[in-house]
From TrEMBL:
The gene is lpxD. GO terms for molecular function: UDP-3-O-[(3R)-3-hydroxyacyl]-glucosamine N-acyltransferase activity. It catalyses: a UDP-3-O-[(3R)-3-hydroxyacyl]-alpha-D-glucosamine + a (3R)-hydroxyacyl-[ACP] = a UDP-2-N,3-O-bis[(3R)-3-hydroxyacyl]-alpha-D-glucosamine + holo-[ACP] + H(+). Belongs to the transferase hexapeptide repeat family. LpxD subfamily. Keywords: Acyltransferase, Lipid A biosynthesis, Lipid biosynthesis, Lipid metabolism, Repeat, Transferase. The active site is at 241 (proton acceptor). This is UDP-3-O-acylglucosamine N-acyltransferase. It holds the Pfam family Hexapep.
Length: 341
């Protein structure tokens, strides 16, 4: 896809300073710009690159004043960073604007779907599935029986959606995500062997949820595992059976949440956090990376460490911990003095 400076300025409500007809077909960092590429300047630390960049077009804020000669055409906007983000979103929409049904696919006769749908090759859609409008299902996606998918949803290549799952509107589910697999439920018998506890519930994903590649969300034993509106999940996260995650909570990669724990709204959870089962984490909680959470946490707390402490207490304790060898050395000297008295 090629765009002229004039077309891009129209999309961004900007003005062109230079050649309106110059074309670009790719994006680049300002320091790596080449002919035919589009870049932007938002951080003043990178200003010197604008005089050497080979990018054909550079997006800048309206108040930018060039101190040297430029070889790049400028598009002046109110806010260069926001404008470039807007352009990336537009670019993705154009790039991903696929429609139609490829071949081969399997679509059950009892499945229904709305207008402007895209179904990629080798997708499987099971019995009694309901799919809304403007949904994109990329190749090798599996959708089990009785699944409900809302409008404007994207399922990327290789996503697996088990039976009975409910997905709301405007959700994005990336490659290799598994939604609705059995929860980790086993019970020991008198012989020390384990018998499987049937997992008869489902997963409910509300509107505007993003789920990163390789993340797994288990179905409930009874009832539902619930991911509420606006939640953003990074790659390779494990969410166990009957977990509930509140609105607009964000969770970074490799976090694991054990069964039946409840997480509030507007929480921020760092990478590689481990959360034990059957605990409650309140609203607006911040958990630093690699923390181990074995207790319930009240609203608005910020914690770190394993087991997790109040964030401020952890930092104070760490000062003493890193000085522990020196402290012990002083202690040993003092102890010897006492022995010699």
């Amino acid at each position: 896809m090629k765009f002229t400076a004039a077309q891009i300025a129209g999309i961004l409500n900007g003005t062109v300073d230079g050649d309106e007809g110059v074309e670009v077909s790719k994006l680049a960092k300002i320091e790596e710009g080449s002919e035919g590429s589009l870049t932007f300047l938002a951080n003043p630390k990178y200003t010197h690159y604008i005089y050497s960049t080979q990018a054909s077009i550079t997006i800048v804020s309206k108040d930018f004043n060039a101190e040297n000669k430029l070889s790049t055409t400028l598009i002046r906007v109110e806010n260069a960073y926001k404008a470039f983000s807007q352009l990336l979103e537009y670019y993705n929409q154009v790039k991903m604007n696929k429609t139609g049904i490829e071949s081969p696919v399997f679509i059950s006769e009892s499945a229904t779907y709305g207008d402007k749908i895209y179904i990629g090759a080798f997708a499987y859609i099971g019995e009694n599935v309901t799919i809304g409008q403007n949904v994109k299902i990329y190749p090798n996606v599996y959708i089990g029986d009785n699944v409900v998918i809302g409008n404007d949803v994207t399922l990327f290549t290789g996503a697996k959606i088990y039976s009975e799952t409910i997905i709301g509107n405007n959700c994005v589910i990336h490659s290799s995500v598994v939604v609705g697999a059995d929860g980790f439920g086993f019970t020991p018998n008198e012989k020390g062997e384990y018998s499987k506890v049937p997992q008869t519930g489902n997963v409910i994903i509300e509107d505007f949820v993003d789920i990163g590649a390789g993340t797994t969300i288990d179905r409930a034993t009874l009832g539902s595992t619930i991911i509420k509106k606006g939640v953003k999940l990074d790659n390779q996260i494990q969410i166990a059976h009957n977990v509930s995650i509140g609105e607009n909570t964000v969770i970074a990669a490799q976090t694991g949440i054990a069964g039946s724990s409840k997480i509030g709204k507007n929480c921020m959870i760092g990478g590689q956090v481990g959360i034990a089962g059957h605990i409650v984490i309140g609203d607006n909680v911040k958990i630093q990376a690699q923390s181990g959470i074995g207790r319930s946490i009240k609203d608005n707390e910020s914690v770190q460490g394993t087991p997790a402490l109040n964030y401020s207490d952890f930092n104070k304790s760490y000062v003493h911990f890193k000085n522990l060898p020196k402290i012990m050395e002083r202690f040993n000297i003092f102890e010897k003095k006492l022995e010699n008295e």
